[in-house]
Amino acid sequence: MDHFLYRDGVLFAEDVAVSEIAAAVGTPFYVYSTATLERHFRLFDEALAGMDHLVCYAMKAASNQAILKTLAALGAGMDVVSGGEYARAKAAGVPGERIVFSGVGKTRDEIAMALEGGIRQFNVESEPEMLVLSEVASAMGKVAPITIRVNPDVDAKTHAKIATGKSENKFGIPIAKARAVYAEAAALPGLEVIGIDVHIGSQLTDLAPFEAAYLKVAELTEQLRADGHNIRRLDLGGGLGIPYARSNEAPPLPTDYGKLIQRTVGHLGCEIEIEPGRLIAGNAGLLVSEVIYVKQGEGREFLILDAAMNDLVRPAMYDAWHDIVPLNEPEAGAEQLPYDIVGPVCESGDTFAKARMMPQLQAGDVVAFRSAGAYGAVMASEYNTRPLVPEVLVKGDHFAVIRARPSFDEMISRDTIPEWL
Ligand SMILES: *Cc1c(COP(=O)(O)O)cnc(C)c1O
């Protein structure tokens, strides 16, 4: 569910007409709904009610400071995967005890930064990383709380580029080796083993892979406890999918996911953490773009937009589908035409959709990509020296630019010319 609805034929973001924002900010831009962000966070929080838990928003999905502050105010923790994200979480006012550090290649500097500023736990991804963490923490006279990310060898049945829980993926340690690695961890100085971490992939539309993974985690918990480890926290990752096409069957609800967690690991008495990203931010954002040209091609018509793959890379990178809708609602029964919807970037991959059925559109019409809030703005670049797409946050009947479009001068002045040139 989201808060982008047509009212009298005009697309609104909460109580603001999207066309009003387009007129004020110019296209292309991302717009987020506060109400949707809050609703989705609360769905997860309520799904785990009754269990000692913390919902740690996976901020790589959408990491604007205003979004982080919105969620932090509800009590969200943050799942960070870099020093930059850690700095963002702290700048948004999230205390260290609510920040979890994930990611396959934490550097010494990043580890030191988190130990210095405070951290809930590190999710350790490999033995070499564990050794470095032990070294850095010991040298600082600190003790790093850790879970170890196990790779349960479960097929998440999602796009190959976002599956992370099979043995061929780079993530975590093989679950079969877990007992040996935990024993090693327990013997190292500067580390305190507190739990287990797992994250099998993103955009999962079925609960079965979660169930398979969590049952393996439950079994491992018992084994590690029998080995003498005080396993008291389970980080169960993120990954619950969202409906990218309104016409598709909706993926499982957070409440059912919560029940699954209760059923698979609830009896262990552990504190539960989850790290949802996409489900919190995905349907909370639109990418809004204007049609620059309608171009007649060989046997096809192209809609050339002012947004491109550098603003939203998901179609090019993951073959992702986004529903694309005009700001003015088409009349019921209006004729639909097939369009190839593309951006202006000099790459054939700069294609958002092929033969997409749309109402007839003309240059100057504005369209919105739905479900663009997660892995949208955060993956944007300035390829083709296109200014980084701005972001806008709506709350009720007001909106604010939360990241401004840079001017060409600002972009150019980031480069420096050596004095010998
Ligand atoms: C990306 C990621 C998440 C979030 O995944 P979503 O599919 O956005 O919910 C959670 N945990 C880890 C470790 C991740 O890498």
UniProtKB/TrEMBL annotation:
Every Orn/DAP/Arg decarboxylase 2 C-terminal domain range: 29-373
PROSITE patterns assigned to the protein according to its UniProt record, in alphabetical order: ODR_DC_2_2 (PS00879)
InterPro entries assigned to the protein according to its UniProt record, in alphabetical order: Ala_racemase/Decarboxylase_C, DAP_deCOOHase_LysA, De-COase2_C, De-COase2_CS, De-COase2_N, Orn/DAP/Arg_de-COase, PLP-binding_barrel
GO terms of molecular function: diaminopimelate decarboxylase activity; pyridoxal phosphate binding
Alphabetical keyword list: Amino-acid biosynthesis, Decarboxylase, Lyase, Lysine biosynthesis, Pyridoxal phosphate
Top EC class, one word: lyase
This protein's record includes keyword Amino-acid biosynthesis: yes
CDD domains named in the record: PLPDE_III_DapDC (cd06828)
SUPFAM superfamilies for the chain: Alanine racemase C-terminal domain-like, PLP-binding barrel
EC numbers: 4.1.1.20
Gene3D superfamilies (alphabetical): Alanine racemase (3.20.20.10), Lyase, Ornithine Decarboxylase, Chain A, domain 1 (2.40.37.10)
PANTHER family: DIAMINOPIMELATE DECARBOXYLASE (PTHR43727), GROUP IV DECARBOXYLASE (PTHR43727:SF2)
HAMAP family in alphabetical order: LysA
Family, per entry: Belongs to the Orn/Lys/Arg decarboxylase class-II family. LysA subfamily.
Function: Specifically catalyzes the decarboxylation of meso-diaminopimelate (meso-DAP) to L-lysine.
Stated name of the protein: Diaminopimelate decarboxylase
Species whose genome carries this gene: Puniceibacterium sediminis
Lineage: Bacteria, Pseudomonadati, Pseudomonadota, Alphaproteobacteria, Rhodobacterales
